[in-house]
Amino acid sequence: MKIRLICCLLLSMLISSPLLAIPDIPKLNNDELDMIFFNVPHGEASLLTNQQGQHILVNTASKRSQKTLYQQLSKLQVDKIETIVITNQSEEYTGNLLYFLEHYQVEKLIIPSNMNVEFLEDVDVETWKLNEDFVLWEDVNIRTLDETKDGDISFLMQYGKESILFLNDKETAIEEKLIQQTGDVDILKVAAFGSGHSPSQSFLEHIDPYMSIIFPSQTHKINESLIERLNATWIDVYFLKQSGTVFVRLNKDDYEILTENSSISLLYS
Fold first, then answer.
1. What is the model's pTM?
2. What does UniProt give as the signal peptide span (predicted)?
3. Would the pLDDT of 222 be above 80?
4. Domains plus CATH for the chain?
């Protein structure tokens, strides 16, 4: 069984400022990546970073989270984002897209097939295609697993033996299809801010993740039975509103979790 290394980096001050949501973290070594799940006031945004200082942003969160995202990215010294990946067209996922395109020298955009981006210039635009791999960097691939009629994309990110499932359909009907395409995953990003019915018990047993991530939302109510199911299956649940921004350091064989809040447990309010 894989050993999970949990390193809790405690801050000396209370987390009262968004800027404090980013702890000091060790530099990346060869063959290491950081997957950063941002704690923002509202919406979803994640950043993938490699040792060469390249960055891929998965969703841009709500516009009301722009200041917090800017502060956290500044603390990380991120001033360029090579690629932006969009998995949902709603404001909670795309609210800062124009802001990032204007200020972060974005070169490439991956979007749902029915998303309108005719206003873009000087950006390479690709659309998700089912069961097709996007090679982001060497040994880093993402595969489209499902796209709903509204353009919500579920995909699997793979780096060596490590995998992250970005689930973006909150209904269990998707699971039969995903079971045919996935095996064990290490990390599950839960759909719709934990407000839906997926993942079901049977799906959790199939993918068998070690940890799950739930982004903050000011408009979605968490499904208590879903959380009970995750906890009963011994899956660590990271509510970013409580844990703060979570760093997952990946190599090709393992990962460790870096977070500034010692109470990363599985409670929510």
1. 0.89
2. 1-21
3. yes
4. 33-259 (3.60.15.10)
